[in-house]
Design brief:
globular; about 120 residues; Immunoglobulin-like; mainly beta
Length: about 120
């Protein structure tokens, strides 16, 4: 079942993009239905790809790197719960940024969407 991009964009918490000590982060909040992430592709910001090993996904006190997400080490995407995605690296410059997200869920297959937010 292919979920349209305009619905997937609603997962993004607008205004959550911010620089942190060791990079930047943003939030997702699932308002659609529970899911199970079984794979992830590198995030892209303004066309620049970031390593999955430097991408940390956190929710409800649990964390996993993007490179660890697999069918054997799935990440639960619960409804109504914040998911923080932190990327280690250089902070982003002030201004508007396009973020491309691609992950695979057990329930709906590949989910691909992009959002724009500012720092």
């Amino acid at each position: 079942m292919q979920i349209p991009s305009f619905l997937l964009r609603k997962l993004y918490v607008k205004g959550s993009l911010e620089n942190v000590d060791d990079g930047f982060q943003f939030k997702l909040k699932n308002s659609l239905s529970p899911g199970t992430a079984v794979g992830m592709e590198p995030l892209k910001v303004n066309g620049n790809e970031y390593s999955l090993a430097d991408t940390i996904i956190s929710s409800e006190g649990e964390s996993i790197t993007g490179s660890e997400v697999s069918p054997d080490k799935a990440f639960m995407i619960k409804v109504g719960v914040d998911i923080v995605i932190r990327v280690k690296g250089e902070p982003l410059p002030e201004g508007e940024h396009k973020i491309d997200v691609s992950l695979t869920t057990k329930e709906a297959g590949k989910l691909v969407f992009d959002v724009t937010d500012s720092i």
